[in-house]
């Protein structure tokens, strides 16, 4: 099995790490970049595939050269063999569409220069954009089947099929099992959990862990960087120029006032309840008027 | 935030989940069981010895250990013997063992007879050195995790390996025949040889119908504190390649039959107690208080010198080989080694469990290799039992002399009589006479006699106390250390609680059936609300009823309540429960 997991660096939104300016805008320079949290589940799915079926696990990202560390983190997480960074100035400031074109081209390039990937794994939504578009769009470019909200998976190597359990509409109550031919793209749900119920798998896992600790320390040796020229990409279709999305503005979500005044009214107190209604009425009008 | 999800961690959380990730179904491997030539359950000294011997003979061996790390579940007093007469010692199997993991060689051995603050000390180094090539103090976390690394390397070469955080929960049978094991974390596994090296309270031995957990008189309970002491050399006036062992018996534990021990480690002390479980129950004694009685005795003042920092409190049952060592420790493809087969020898005051587990593990492995080479691996069990006999191991575990002596010695009229004689004026005169001729110390140092000590109060309580009264000197100096409370001891331990999935279930909560656990459980006590077992008064329709309740959270998995209370008792799932750092 040759798998490619797509990952991305995002600002570290965790308490204490993230930094905002006075207007509430994110200060990218001051906020460290970390691997997108949801990608963890994609990496786990790739790891499970590698443990159970062997082969190569590759990790790919589009981003600035500083993303190397994100890839290093991914490498030690997924015990990856190869890292690919798609990076140059022309690719910068891409929206999800331009990103998807770039990533799909990168995957095709792997097929040309390495071997045909059997599976591409993507996480569900990034922590910064929250669109959830990139995975499906990349898949559309590749013209592969896509399976989303995957919580468990199983591969039949001889039949070249993958069978997954997925949450229908992302709903935890509704789980279906579907099958697709390989190659395919898998978008993991945050509910994804790998299972290792064979001793042999756990032993392989242990071996991989030992091997990869060393490998991740010299991750640069396993890192391939491709720029747009190497990918034969027209700068007009990638990066900012290739991005149809227009961000009209970013509204900071106002902080809730830390102290509020509260009047406690006993629901049995009719006069009191009357005054509550009086207070609330103007808001209902405003909401009705403001709706567009 | 790294995706470094260890499968061992991951699945451990699974059952609490509501979502059915189950097997996605059957595209994969079908329902064929995984097969290994040998599966070894448990990686204590017994399991490690078996696995290393199997691996050395090219047997594909899988080792399954329930702890987060081998040693994280294990407790011993810590004196590991290499007997001259043993066919296998640990350094035969792991040549770097002593240098890599042992704390200190034990070069001096003393027995203290205590009555109040009077003490008569015997030097029994001769007994200690009898049949001893060497003996080292060890701490189990350090020792077992080191062994496990070697075992993993060796078994991996054979196509197997060692996995931690996997708990074997039973035997896999096919038409009544044992063919493998079932686990909490893995699918069933078949094997040609199954080595149950899963220690005391072996679930496999019980599943096979070879052991029951019914009679308290078949077990000891050991409780131990590892005490920080950076300057052991100075306090004991020894060099770094010397070490001391001290044993304590007499009236400092009231009438509970058993004794105390102190062993020097590199920079700590192992101080503990070992009591007959039936005696502990009969006296309704609190194990932690008995330990405290030892810790605070003036005799220890000299070494502790007013300072006391406890690294760890721990406890575990110990089988009494004289009563439970199985003469035929096997059933079909299953062989039992070490504590699982009851192979724990209390040779008078000297406790030998680890060394016998090592010997038995290696012999069982060898028996399998021989049987296999003769084309019938099913004969492994019988060959193993024969090797235990031929090599003299069984004779140590179940000494004929003890059996002869105990027939008389433990019947209560006789026992009472001996006790009264020792305590009488005539008895005391004999003692004094013996002592003048130095005969008493020699008697104590006799390996022959130490094997036939009956399990009565006489050797444990009466005799030492009388000796101390008649011949002892009062201890000078004092000992004003304050051991931690039970609540603090529990608070210092590390647990990964399996929330919502307790490993012990109380089947009968009446005081008659299970009340003994309230005192006998080493992390419970009367009038202590933070332990495992409690006695509660429940009011029903104006009636008051006393009932026992159980909370397994503080459990140290010692096994006591499996015997003294009416429970459904299992070990926690892999990686769950208490994690000892010293052991
Ligand atoms: C307080 C005390 C003092 C002692 N003093 C001494 C002493 O000074 N000298 C001496 O030689 N002996 C001493 N002993 C006895 C000694 O500790 C034991 O005899 C010895 O540890 C037995 O070794 P074993 O390999 O049979 O079992 P253990 O060392 O108990 O190892 C069993 C292993 O199996 C694992 N396991 C258990 N169940 C399962 C399962 N279901 N699935 C997977 N893994 C499982 C456990 O985690 C453990 O690692 C003492 C014991 C105590 C409690
Ligand atoms: S609950 Fe039972 S097994 Fe646990 S520590 Fe108490 S007596 Fe031991």
From TrEMBL, chain A:
Q: Where is this region: Disordered?
A: 249-270
Give every Electron transfer flavoprotein alpha/beta-subunit N-terminal domain span. Answer: 23-212
Q: Which InterPro entries match?
A: ETF_a/b_N, ETF_b, Rossmann-like_a/b/a_fold
SMART domains found in the cross-reference section: ETF (SM00893)
Molecular function via GO: electron transfer activity
Pfam families on file: ETF
Q: Specify the superkingdom.
A: Archaea
Coiled coil region boundaries: none
> What's the protein here called?
Protein FixA
Species for this entry: Halalkalicoccus paucihalophilus
Tell me the name of the encoding gene.
fixA_1
From TrEMBL, chain B:
In terms of Pfam families, this protein maps to: FAD_oxidored
Q: Does the keyword Ligase apply?
A: no
The record's region (Disordered) falls at 1-24
Q: Please list the GO terms describing molecular function.
A: oxidoreductase activity; ribose 1,5-bisphosphate isomerase activity
User: Which keywords appear in this protein's UniProt record, sorted alphabetically?
Assistant: FAD, Flavoprotein, Isomerase, Oxidoreductase
Query: What are the EC numbers?
Result: 5.3.1.29
What's this protein's name? Answer: Putative thiazole biosynthetic enzyme
Q: Give start-end of the signal peptide.
A: none
Q: What class of enzyme is it?
A: isomerase
What superkingdom does the record give?
A: Archaea
Species, as recorded: Halalkalicoccus paucihalophilus
The uppermost taxa in this organism's lineage are: Archaea, Methanobacteriati, Methanobacteriota, Stenosarchaea group, Halobacteria
Q: Where is the composition biased (Basic and acidic residues)?
A: 7-23
- Co-factor requirement: FAD
Which InterPro entries has this protein been placed in? FAD/NAD-bd_sf, FixC-like
